[in-house]
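step 3/5: co-fold with magnesium ion
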Amino acid sequence: MEPSSVAVGCERVTHEYGTGSTVSRTVTALRDVSFEVATGEVVGLVGPSGSGKSTALHIIGGLLEPNNGTVDVLGTDLTALSGAKRTRLRRDHIGFVFQQFHLLPALSARDNVALPLIERGVSRRERQRRAAELLEQVGLDDRMDHLPSELSGGEQQRVAIARALVADPEVVLADEPTGELDTGTGARVLELLVDVADERTVLIATHDERAMAVTDRVLRLLDGEMRQAGQFSDEQ
Ligand code: ADP
Ligand code: MG
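step 4/5: write tokens
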């Protein structure tokens, strides 16, 4: 593939926890994992608990440096970047959605969504405008001034999705985005995430097999190893 058509590429990525610490026991969370995600593709990273999904997303998001291998995000080799440059790439190009929403409890839905724009130097007026626009896209324009505690779990996750997208990232990483939600709500939140993400590249880590309903392709991790590296699968 041409470089521009690959949004995320991992090549022979290995990560062990516990190396360099005083604890002698190490855990190999990822072993020789290689895959590519094309620009605009929606990929599910599926596997049981402990299979290495979060580790993979943290590495792609530049939150964790792998012990081995290379990680390419939007044409940049993350493993060759300084910590500061990695942070900037993350801030400017990646949106995160977490299992536990991670909303600030004292801020309204709108101010939570606007938050990523502060460190990017966007004016308050423009922040508020953009946050309102995103909240409208996730169907919460009538909940702008609500605090997280005044929202249902599904609504809180929709606020978190709006926040992940407000700075217009090319890549969206979602780690168990339905983990705290009931079945029906989770399914709707997944659909919404993919819908609002539009043309962006999306990686959804989940142990929920139903993620396949909304993804273009599924990558399977088992005990830190990729079962079908980089191939199209025709899951039922
Ligand atoms: P998943 O997200 O698929 O549940 P993780 O990436 O969180 O999997 O974990 C993969 C493996 O790495 C598991 O065996 C887990 O116990 C281990 N692990 C995860 N984080 C740490 C850590 N900070 N320290 C030590 N081991 C960890
Ligand atoms: Mg996890």
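step 5/5: annotate
Residues 53-54, 175-176 surround magnesium ion (ligand 2) (CB under 6 Å).
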